[in-house]
Amino acid sequence: MAPVAVAPPVDVLSNKLDKLHLATSKPGAQQPDISYHPDEAKWKARTARRLAEDPSLPSTALPEGFPKVLDSPLVWEGKDWTDESQWTYVLNDDQLQEIDSALKHFHSLAVPQGRVNQSTFPLPTLGPILKDLARELHTGRGFFVLRALPVESYSRTDIILIYAGVSSYIGNLRGVQDRDAGVLAHIKDLTETHPAKTIGAPAYTTDKQVFHTDAGDIISLLALETAAEGGTSRISSSWRVYNELAQTRPDLIKTLSEPWVHDTYGGDPLYKSRPLLYREDSHTIIQYARRIFTGFLGLPRSQDIPPITEAQAEALDAIHFLAEKYNLGLDFRKGDVQYINNLSIFHARDGFSDTHEKKRHLLRLWLRNEDLAWKLPEPLKENWERLYYTAKEDEQRFPLEPEIRQASHGKNGKVEGGKYV
C-alpha cells in the first residue's frame, strides 16, 4: 500500500499563511494591523481603544432607511436548528431515476452544454419541488441542502451536466466566474501543484476560509469528495449579525454602508469604491470578501491604493466574529448540493487535511432566479450584468479540472508552457 501524504496540521498551515500575509501586505503606514485571519484579541483591543477615544460611537444614528431590527425567517442562529432534516431534502430512488432520464434526454438533443436548462433537462415531478425550495432561499430561511447525487455513478462530464440541470430549477441563470465564459468553478487544494505566489484565494488551499460572501444571488456547491479531516462548511445569517450591530454598534452599520476602497490588484482602475451593506426594497444586502481588504497569500493588498480605516478594520472583525458566534455547521456529504442566498447569508469553511485517497473537491455555480430575485442596489448592478448577461448559452464553459480563477490568481504568478510558475 502506497504511503499516505497528509497535509500539514491546519493550525500550522494557518500560522504560516498569516506570517506570509503580514510580511507581504504592507500598503502603507496607515493600513491597520489586520490580516486575512481574524485575531480576536486584536479585535477586542481595537474596539476598546476606539470606544475609549469616542464613547459616543454606540449612540450613532443608523443611516437613513436602515431599520433598528430585521424581523424575518432570514434572521436565525445556529442553535435554532436542531436537526439536519430541517434544511436537507433527500432525493429518493424515483427522483434519481428521473434525473438519469433527464440526462439521457439532454444527450439525445446533441446541443452544447450551456443549453442545459429546465426545457432540455426535464424533471416533471422533481422540478416543482426544486422550485419550491428556490422560494425558500428568497423568502424563507435562505438555505437548503439537496442530498445526494450519485457522483460516483457518472463521468465528470455527466455529473456536471446533472448538477447544472438540477440547479437550473433553483436559478435559471448561471453566472460567469472566470475568463472565456467559465460558469463552473472547482474548489480544491492546489498547493501541491501550484506555487504559493500563484494562489490569491483560500479556496485553493487547505486553509480556513473566513466568513464572506461570493458574487451573485445564489451560491451552490456540489461535493464531489469531502476532506479526510476537517473542512466543515459553515453558514451564518447576516441579518442576525445586522440586528446585533444595529442594537450595540450602529456606528459600524454606518461604516459598512459607506464606500470602501476595493483592491483590483493592479487592474484599471487600481481600486473601486462601494459600500458593503445596502438597504434596498425592504431587503438588507451585504456583499463583501475580507481578502479584498487584507490580501491573501499571492495577492497582498496593493501598496498604491488608500488603506482601510480603523473603523473599517473593526467592522471587518465584528462581522466575522458575530457570524462565527451564530453560525451553523453543515454536514456536507459526498454528493450533497448546498444552496444559499448569497445576499443574506455569510459562508465559511474550516481548515482541512487531505490524503491521497480522499481529497476535498467541490464544484460551484453562481445562480440567479429571475422570477424571485431581489431588487439590486445600484452599485451592484454593473457586476450582476457582467455575471449573468454577457455569456450566451453556446459560449458557456464547464471546465472538467480545477483552474485558478483570474480574479484569484497571484500577482506574481505567470503561465509558461501551459503550467503556472
TrEMBL record:
Signal sequence bounds: none
A GO molecular-function descriptor: oxidoreductase activity
Coiled coil, from the record: none
Pfam families in alphabetical order: TauD
Record keyword Oxidoreductase present: yes
Annotated region (Disordered), positions in chain: 400-421
Domain TauD/TfdA-like as annotated: residue spans: 116-366
Annotated PANTHER family: FAMILY OXIDOREDUCTASE, PUTATIVE (AFU_ORTHOLOGUE AFUA_4G13850)-RELATED, GAMMA-BUTYROBETAINE HYDROXYLASE-RELATED
Name of the protein: Clavaminate synthase-like protein
Species name: Coprinellus micaceus
